[in-house]
Design brief:
heterodimer, A: mainly alpha, 2 domains, 10 helices, 69% helix, B: alpha/beta, 6-stranded mixed β-sheet, 11 helices, Energy-coupling factor transporter transmembrane protein EcfT (chain A), transport (chain A), transmembrane transporter activity (chain A)
Chain lengths: 263, 291
């Protein structure tokens, strides 16, 4: 669990860290969308250089990103191999039974690999440079138009920020309960499937019970501090759209044009 | 069963930017049959050290010798059960580890994991409930119907039911009322004196250290700052203050008395000691004043 860096935040001070989370969120999703426009090597080269320069700007070490890809390596390899061996078309290099190695297959495999790496890098970059609470603020702000169709934007945002806040707490709690049960002689990850499933019960039940208690305490504490719901509340963290954020949007537009040209 | 640390270091999440140091070159011995108190500022590595005592954590450098088992960084995670049965561990707020349908089943859970037949484990549970001072009618209740203090006792009973040789306690009385605290501490003393159980306790209550422990380990920033008898540790109030640690109430009071001209050959640790030392001095003082 410690190896997965996707979804973690790294405190730092770079242009990316200071950007408006809304801009970062929109730009990242947009970027992941336009990755699928690329169907030629020059286009991928442009995307690659763009992503790498963002990594450079973020002042976060590159090997940190590479480590982030590692847990997903098997998924990537599996998909790439499927693409390579099951895509028909173009010159056939090698054939054995239902497996064929074709020009298109190899090309497709390489494209898929690039897409995976770019998407993971970009989403990792987003979470590494944005504190989870800012992300929640950004989502709330971006969902605001949905209020028109009676979507409970404020409630969703509140649940999101409470959930994000309690992820580390619950992780600590899980580790603590696991250790306590280990000390009472439970083996985790040993024995057959049924035995392993049974070993989860002594973690799950205490975890559920403590979550119920925590929710109860939190609700009481919120009410005691005058919380009555989303209407009429002011905000402490106010998001500010700066020149940098507009520039990021322009960069995305230029990138789209380049990608369409290079198709 | 002695537990010896030989130059033990532990690093959290080594090789990542989130790397953090837990222990640094710690060497110490917890002797069989001792009552050891571990004290130190919050974040000094006390809980990290505790988790090495039953191999929940393995050192990143050095060797931990638990009885005749050596735990090194290379030690395999398998076959550690024997250690965990001999070293019973009660975590902070242990009431969060209860999960079974009845108190009796929950207490019997530990022994059953170590291969004790169900009938015997259930019988042990009955005995343990009595030992920790709960009425027999809680046995059939759900642990979640009990009060916080009672849950704590059930959790401790669950560890004691494993019949460990060493009992490790991480702030066992945190959040209990004064009566509950005294009863808990009396229980541990009884286990120590009657069954010769080795007790290792992390605590912030200096009074408990002075009253019960016979060996004290002081940790600071993951390093061993000092170890010795409570008298040796509490003999130097200035040093303790520098380490952000307090003195037992009795010793504090004795310090105030020293300022008023009283003389003590050694630091009084318990109320009884202080009373005896004062009794030896008072008549002469009273006499002097009369002249």
């Amino acid at each position: 669990m410690n190896k997965l860096i996707l979804g973690r935040f790294m405190p730092g001070d770079s242009i990316l860290h200071r950007m408006d989370p809304r801009a970062k969120l929109v730009a990242s999703f947009y970027y992941i969308g336009i990755i699928f426009l690329a169907r030629s090597w020059p286009a991928y080269a442009v995307l690659f250089v763009f992503t790498m320069s963002l990594v450079l700007i973020s002042k976060i070490k590159l090997d940190f990103f590479i480590k982030g890809v590692r847990p997903l390596l098997w998924l990537i390899l599996f998909t790439v191999l499927l693409q390579i061996f099951f895509t028909r078309g173009g010159h056939i290099y090698w054939q054995w039974g239902f497996l064929t190695l074709t020009r298109y297959g190899l090309l497709n495999g390489a494209y898929i690999f690039m897409r995976f790496v770019l998407i993971i890098f970009m989403s990792t970059l987003l979470t590494l440079t944005t504190p989870p609470l800012s992300l929640a603020d950004a989502i709330e702000s971006l969902l605001k138009p949905l209020k028109a169709i009676r979507f409970p934007v404020y409630e969703v945002a509140l649940m999101l920020s409470i959930a994000l806040r309690f992820v580390p707490t619950l992780m600590d709690e899980t580790t603590k309960i696991m250790n306590a049960q280990r000390a009472r002689g439970v083996d985790f990850g040993e024995g057959g499937l049924f035995k392993q499933m049974k070993a989860i019960v002594p973690i799950l039940i205490p975890l559920f019970v403590s979550s119920f208690n925590r929710a109860d305490d939190l609700a009481t504490a919120m009410e005691a501090r005058g919380y009555q719901g989303g209407e009429g509340r002011s905000k402490y963290r106010i998001l500010k759209w700066q020149t940098m954020d507009s520039l990021a949007m322009v960069a995305m537009a230029i990138l789209t044009v380049i990608l369409i040209v290079l198709r | 069963m002695d537990i010896t640390f030989k130059d033990v270091s532990y690093t959290y999440q080594p090789g990542t930017p989130f790397q953090g140091l837990g222990l640094e070159h710690v060497s110490l011995t917890i002797e069989s049959g001792s009552y050891t108190a571990i004290i130190g500022h919050t974040g000094s590595g006390k809980s990290t050290l505790l988790q090495h005592l039953n191999a929940l954590l393995k050192p990143t450098a050095g060797v931990v010798q638990i009885g005749d088992r050596e735990i090194t960084p290379e030690t395999n995670n398998k076959n550690l059960k024997a250690i965990r049965q001999k070293v019973g561990m009660v975590f902070q707020f242990p009431e969060s580890q209860l999960f079974e349908a009845t108190v009796q089943k929950d207490i019997a859970f530990g022994p059953q994991n170590f291969g004790v037949p169900e009938a015997e484990a259930m019988a042990r549970a009955i005995h343990m409930v009595e030992l920790v001072g709960l009425p027999a009618n809680v046995l059939e209740k759900s642990p979640f119907d009990l009060s916080g203090g009672q849950m704590r006792r059930v959790a401790i009973a669950g560890v004691l039911a494993m019949q460990p040789e060493v009992l490790v306690l991480d702030e066992p009385t945190a959040g209990l009322d004064p009566v509950g605290r005294r009863e808990m501490m009396a229980l541990f003393t009884r286990l120590h004196e009657e069954q010769g159980m080795t007790i290792v306790m992390v605590t912030h209550q200096m009074d408990d250290v002075a009253n019960y422990a016979n060996h004290v380990i002081v940790l600071e920033n993951g390093q061993l700052a000092k170890s010795g008898t409570p008298r040796e540790i509490f003999a130097d109030p200035a040093w303790l203050t520098a380490k952000h640690l307090g003195l037992p109430t009795t010793t504090q009071f004795a310090q105030a008395l020293i300022q008023k001209g009283f003389v003590f050959d050694q630091v009084p640790l318990t109320e009884h000691e202080l009373a005896a030392m004062l009794q030896a001095q008072l008549p002469s003082k009273v006499g002097e004043r009369r002249e």
